[in-house]
Design a protein that fits this description.
Number of strands: 5
CATH topology: Transcription Regulator spoIIAA
CATH class: Alpha Beta
Strand order of the largest sheet: 1-2-3-4-5
Number of helices: 3
Order of helices and strands: EEHEHEHE
Number of domains: 1
Largest sheet: 5 strands, mixed
Strand content: 35-45%
Amino acid sequence: MTTTIKQDGNRYIACFSGRLDTAAAVQTAEDIKPLLQVERSEIILDCTDLEYISSSGLRIFLTIRKESTARGSRVIVRNINTDIRQVFVMTGFVSLFEIE
């Protein structure tokens, strides 16, 4: 599992690649810490290469949303595959996130 964060002006793009399972969640939580400090920006969670997400991974996404919106940022989830979309539907995350 790899997480890469890029900044483009007032936009931050976090690219997730691999399986965001319980084992990978510990490192991913460290990797996304810079996003939790961003204020009044657009944060894109790019899931093009994300193969799987566990409950630990969902908790990371929820943390990003909670901290970011509290700081006036907008969070967008992009390019989730069919399986991850089903997880988002079953858990109610589709109503919590703007999904493109």
